[in-house]
Write a structure and sequence with these properties.
The protein has 172 residues and is α/β, with parallel strands linked by helices. The chain contains four helices and six strands, in the order βαβαβαβαββ.
């Protein structure tokens, strides 16, 4: 990866549970399928990083429990301390305009960022940035995007190229 490019991987949180009706949407945990899919997707992503010799990634997550737990599973798989996950409150329930503002504010030293969040915002945001083959990203799907930029604040709609799109069911 060259210094004149940035990468963003949008990861929708893994499948969450609706079993406890006393919990708020923000507090919903992952269900059994989510706890199975997140490690699978994290291992696939680790293999991509190894193939592409990408040494460092930044993890940025919604603080909602299901997104944060997904990010923590990725952190563990990638040998990144969970304490390094950046919590970004604005990701929760964010629409594409807000997500664009968040990404434009990333530190330029972070050339590859994994962002964990929610639909419909993530699917709409991915399609705003690049030509994508999906309407809605299913749970734990990942859209890997590349931008020919040196700095995040210059990111504009349509600047991206979708390198890869992966879902838990892709290899089933």
């Amino acid at each position: 990866m060259s210094k004149s490019e940035r990468r963003l991987t949008l990861i929708r949180h893994a499948k969450s549970s609706w079993a406890d009706g006393t919990l708020s949407d923000f507090e919903r945990p992952l269900n059994a399928r989510g706890l199975r899919d997140a490690p699978t997707m994290a291992r696939r992503f680790a293999a991509v990083l190894q193939r592409e010799t990408i040494n460092k990634v930044r993890l940025v997550s919604s603080p909602a429990l299901r997104a944060l737990t997904t990010a923590q599973i990725f952190a563990d798989t990638l040998n990144i301390p969970q304490s390094e996950i950046v919590l970004q409150e604005k990701i929760y329930e964010a629409m594409p305009g807000t997500l664009l503002e968040i990404v434009r504010a990333f530190d330029d030293a972070d050339t590859h960022v994994l962002m964990f969040g929610h639909n419909p915002g993530f699917s709409d945001f991915a399609r705003l940035l690049a030509d994508c083959p999906f309407i809605e990203m299913p749970t734990c799907a990942a859209a890997h995007l590349r931008f020919g930029l040196r700095v995040w604040h210059k990111l504009n709609p349509g600047d991206g190229e979708l390198l890869r799109y992966d879902t838990p069911k892709a290899s089933e």
